[in-house]
């Protein structure tokens, strides 16, 4: 057997050498071939595969389900009968994920299985780093109780923290449509050769992705956009990252067997946000700031609004949860945010904004606050608050939308605070007592006074008149109802 394996290895290296020359000396091709050969040797070492299975089980199958039940299963290794060329495993009955008919007959919850599989995969790639590199439908089955069972632990990857953080950063830059940020990520991770013009890479990425309409949230779509750029700039993927790409592609393909509309990037985003909020390390805090604050210091209000809305949605879901709903909620608990982590991340964000490095953010914040106050003080907009929603903004739709967004944002923030009122109150008091906060509040007050001192008197009288008119109409409506009730009684 050994001579045959040696011959296979030599054959792969010969093919790799010829392809390398044919493909204009692209150095990553031979590396990729060598990595495949290395994993071929690993996959025929069943002692190593058994150890991989046990490590995977310890990391990902212990207590992942509700009420002590595990939603991820790994077959037990029987070491008494296992040798380098023999692997003895526990038998697990299951249904192939591609067998839609049997899954339907078993009344299995497809969404729950996708959630559990996605959560397990994201933990592998972004938290612990030890991952199954080949999660295709042949290596996963659904059990009768709705759990997912993994098999075949011969091809595994183990990526260091630097690469895991890099994955998160690339996702954030992709969502932010920041091609230069992506180009810098590729450079820092060693994907592009030293001396490469990163601005040229960024330009090529901009062309490849086009405008927002062409931006894809499925992994295959993203890779289709990247292929030409990777070839033109001689990208060289580290071996472990080549396995990550394989794992992500296999994951999406497996999930699509259960849900054809599944998109791995879109589905992974809540997990990534949760990681950014929960991890207080400097590099993760930096990525969180990049998610919410542009390079020039301006705030991505749309992104912040969506984040606050997601947290407040968790509040409304928990308040409406019934006592018997624990099992149904367990499958998607990983999408929830830990409120103490959210409070801690918010405090760190405040500290950055109030620091010397955050001076540009403070300038934009003051400008945005002045714009918001101006919208409230405009006679053409402020009265719209007292009109029916269908009439709001007829005179100035842009300012009306701003007011509505502010009102919705404040309401969402109040709901988020209701999840951990003591933690939020303590944090806000700590921040408010800082001298930097007091100076910033004074700057905001002076900016508002300087901007609106000549507008406030006239606008206030107009707003008061409109408000009195609104109350008069409401009073007339109520009196009409009273008269109607009296006439009906007679």
TrEMBL record:
Domain ABC1 atypical kinase-like: 5-182
Top-rank lineage group of the source organism: Eukaryota
Family that this chain belongs to: Belongs to the protein kinase superfamily. ADCK protein kinase family.
Protein name: ABC1 atypical kinase-like domain-containing protein
Taxonomic source organism: Aegilops tauschii subsp. strangulata
């Amino acid at each position: 057997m050994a001579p045959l394996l040696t011959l296979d290895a030599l054959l792969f290296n010969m093919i790799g050498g010829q392809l390398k020359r044919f493909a204009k000396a692209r150095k990553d091709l031979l590396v990729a071939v060598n990595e495949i050969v290395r994993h071929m040797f690993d996959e025929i070492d069943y002692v190593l595969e058994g150890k991989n299975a046990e490590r995977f089980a310890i990391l990902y199958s212990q207590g992942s389900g509700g009420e002590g039940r595990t939603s991820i299963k790994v077959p037990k290794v029987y070491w008494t009968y296992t040798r380098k060329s023999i692997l003895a495993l526990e038998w697990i009955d299951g249904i192939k994920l591609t067998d839609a008919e049997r899954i339907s007959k078993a009344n299995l919850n497809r969404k729950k299985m996708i959630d559990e599989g996605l959560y397990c995969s994201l933990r592998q790639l972004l938290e612990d780093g030890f991952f199954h590199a080949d999660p295709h439908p042949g290596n996963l089955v659904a059990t009768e109780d709705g759990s997912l069972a993994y098999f075949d632990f011969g091809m595994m990857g183990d990526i260091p923290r630097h690469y895991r953080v890099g994955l998160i950063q690339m996702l954030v830059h992709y969502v932010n449509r920041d091609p230069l940020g992506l180009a810098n990520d590729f450079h820092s991770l060693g994907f592009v050769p030293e001396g490469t013009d990163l601005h040229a890479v960024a330009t090529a990425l901009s062309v490849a992705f086009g405008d927002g309409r062409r931006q894809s949230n499925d992994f295959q779509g993203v890779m289709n956009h990247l292929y030409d750029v990777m070839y033109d700039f001689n990208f060289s993927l580290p071996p472990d990252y080549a396995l990550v790409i394989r794992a992500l592609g296999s994951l999406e393909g497996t999930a699509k067997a259960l849900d054809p509309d599944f998109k791995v990037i879109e589905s992974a985003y809540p997990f990534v946000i949760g990681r950014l909020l929960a991890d207080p390390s400097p590099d993760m805090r930096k990525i969180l700031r990049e998610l919410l604050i542009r390079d020039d210091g301006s705030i991505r209000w749309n992104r912040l609004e969506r984040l606050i809305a997601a947290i407040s949605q968790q509040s409304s879901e928990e308040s409406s949860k019934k006592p018997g709903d624990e099992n149904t909620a367990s499958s998607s608990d990983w999408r929830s945010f830990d409120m103490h982590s959210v409070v801690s991340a918010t405090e760190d964000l405040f500290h950055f904004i109030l620091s010397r490095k955050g001076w540009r953010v403070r300038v934009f914040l003051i400008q945005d606050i002045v714009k918001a106050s101006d919208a409230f003080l405009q006679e053409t907009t402020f009265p719209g608050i007292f009109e029916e929603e269908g009439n709001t903004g007829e005179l100035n739709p842009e300012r009306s939308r701003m007011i509505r967004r502010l009102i919705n944002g404040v309401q969402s923030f109040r709901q988020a605070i209701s999840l951990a009122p003591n933690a939020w109150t303590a944090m806000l008091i700590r921040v408010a007592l800082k001298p930097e906060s007091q100076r910033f509040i004074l700057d905001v007050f002076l900016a508002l006074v300087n901007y609106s001192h000549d507008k406030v008197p006239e606008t206030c009288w107009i707003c008061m008149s409109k408000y009195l008119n609104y109350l008069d109409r409401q009073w007339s409506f109520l009196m009409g109802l009273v008269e109607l009730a009296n006439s009906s009684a007679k």
